[in-house]
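Structure ticket #2291
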Amino acid sequence: MPSSTKSSASPWQDRLEEACRDNNYPLPHFQYVSDRRGGRTAWSSRITIEGQVFQARFWYDGKNLNNAKEDAAELALRSLRYVNGSPSSSWH
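Resolution: structure written out below.
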């Protein structure tokens, strides 16, 4: 499995980590998932925060793993920040 470093983090991941710190939540736990498709492997990502799991919407080639993390981070941040279209005062 490809490795990940902090230097590969991008805007959605950074914003999600900042939101977790601001709300006294542990930093998100990113996990890669793979699916063998013919002769190739497709990769995706999911994030767990306080027991909630956020799965990336798409599958990616191995060279685009950061896109999978960005996808999942965007979904998590939007879900955690907004409830019914307005900013949430709590995350749950």
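Closing remark: The domain at 7-82 is CATH 3.30.160.20 (Double Stranded RNA Binding Domain).
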